[in-house]
Amino acid sequence: MNVKQTLKSPVAKVTGGLTAITAIAQPEVLYAVGDALIASGPQLFSVVSVSALTLPQILPPDSTLDWIVVLAALVFAGYLLREINDNFEERGL
Fold it and tell me: What pTM was computed for the model?
């Protein structure tokens, strides 16, 4: 799927519409979400890196070592997602 197809998808249209409505009705919510995403940048990058670059190389796990790597990656991703959630809670979202 390329960028042009993604932008034409119904999900992208609904998301864009909801974002526009939120920006018009309550711009402080949009600013808080942007601020929380910026504060969570390192965690988001790490989650994407682990899930998109590391895990596909060893899935499905064949050996005990592969299972250990998968479990460590899941624990790490859980930790990072908790940090991201904390950033959103700090901003009242």
Answer: 0.53
Residue 4: enclosing H or E segment and its boundaries? helix 3-8
Residue 91, φ and ψ in degrees, nearest 5: -95, 10
CB contact at 8 A, 47 and 81: yes
Per-residue pLDDT of the chain (93 residues; tens, 9 = 90+): 555 666 667 777 777 777 777 667 777 777 777 777 787 778 778 878 877 777 777 778 888 888 888 888 888 888 888 887 887 787 776
Q: Do 92 and 51 form a contact (C-beta atoms < 8 A)?
A: no
Using an 8 Å Cβ cutoff, are 5 and 65 in contact?
no
The pair phi, psi for residue 65, each rounded to 5°, is -65, -40
